[in-house]
Amino acid sequence: MSRVEALGRFLWDFVVGDDWRIAVAVVVALGTTAIVAAAGASAWWILPVGTVLVLGLSVWRVARPAG
Amino acid sequence: MTGSEIGLALSVFLACTVEAVEALTIVLAVGVTRSWRSAMIGVGAGVLALAVVTAALGPALTSLPLNVLRLIVGGLLLVFGLQWLRKAILRAAGLKALHDEAGIFAREREAAGAAGAIDSGFDGYSFTLAFKGVFLEGLEVIFIVLTFGANQHNVGLAAVAAVAAVALVIVTGMLVHAPLSRVPENSLKFGVGVMLTSFGMFWGAEGAGANWPGSDASLLVIIPVTLLVAIAMVTALRRRVASPPSTAEARDDAAVHA
Fold first, then answer.
1. Looking at chain B, which residue has its C-alpha nearest residue A66?
2. By the CB < 8 Å criterion, does B93 face chain A?
3. What CA–CA distance (Å, rounded) separates B12 from B163?
4. ipTM rounded to 2 decimals
5. What is the pTM of this model?
6. How much is the pLDDT for A65?
7. Whole-angstrom Cα distance, residue A59 to residue B95?
């Protein structure tokens, strides 16, 4: 593995971690919050709801029986 | 001290304690087995590298406009916090192996012993392992210190909390001269995960332009609600422990992530 690949892998593990869906969900939730807030609507609830959903789904994926 | 400052100091202190305990285990293993001198040089080099990263990132972070800073930092803290919380929930529910410092110490010690003869004078193996241990564990701490500190314009308080935690772990490690396996590391990680997730949600939403009801006081609701949700998830998952974990997580366990 080259040094660039190793650095990329380290950064991926450092920032994204075990479940990439969490990082994607956070980006989507932040974007949605920005759009809703810019439209003048109440947007504070989007991140908490998104956080509970993505965390619940992430641990559920592990807990569900294999197969 | 305000509620936000207490949250800042507590989050940084707990996160630093956890990471310092993990770094101490690695340094002790190579120090005891191979060369204390080379391990200590590795520790010094690791601390120096962390100082360089801090000096480079610190001014860059603090020069960003507050909303941009809160959006970026909030998002990163939320991703970090959810990673910590996910692992802590799975460990508390019995779906992931608990972090075991005594076990890690034994494995590192065995690997260090089998790594070949010790060079006379300077032992590269001890240096490299100690350097990597301190630098990699410290990087996350630096990130937390800088982001929490910059967001609240109080990097000094975050740094004091970090130094206090590291000093406590080092002194305790010197006294017992063994890995700190009695530190409730998994519980600390659970607490840190809750704090990082809560502050990440708060700052991320503010940076994206949302206004929390009650402004800063909303943290007094966000943190306990996040804790309760995490505990509820642990309770729900424990009911499933009777069935075997999925193959994907079994592979994760084999790697025993930090």
1. B246
2. yes
3. 10
4. 0.90
5. 0.75
6. 64
7. 9
